Amino acid sequence: MLIKAVVILLLVLIIGSLFSGLLFMFKDKSNSDRMVKALTIRIGLSIFLFILLMAGFYFGLIPGHR
Q1: Backbone phi, then psi, for 32, in 5-degree steps?
Q2: pLDDT exceeds 80 at position 22
Q3: pTM score over 0.85
Q4: What is the distance between the alpha carbons of residues 41 and 54, in angstroms, rounded to a whole number?
Q5: pLDDT grade, residue 66 (50/70/90)?
Q6: CA–CA separation, 53 vs 45, rounded Å?
Q7: CB atoms within 10 A of CB 42
Q8: Closest Cα partner for 19 from 43, 39, 48?
Q9: Cβ pair 10, 44 in contact under 8 A
Q10: In angstroms, rounded to a whole number, what is the distance separating the alpha carbons of residues 21 and 1?
Q11: In the predicted model, what is the mean pLDDT of residues 34-40?
Q12: Where in the chain are the domains?
């Protein structure tokens, strides 16, 4: 149950970072790097989620289908 909550939390954070990057893209008219930072955070969270899912499957926290 804990792994499900962590996955859902990470997905919400990824979507939030994606939309903040979109907001910064349209609102920032200067040469700020807020959009790049938001998208970098999104990529980092996505990679972390992928590694977490693979580790959960490997250690048996996420059962496979047979």
Answers
A1: -80, 160
A2: yes
A3: no
A4: 20
A5: low
A6: 12
A7: 19
A8: 39
A9: no
A10: 31
A11: 90
A12: 2-58
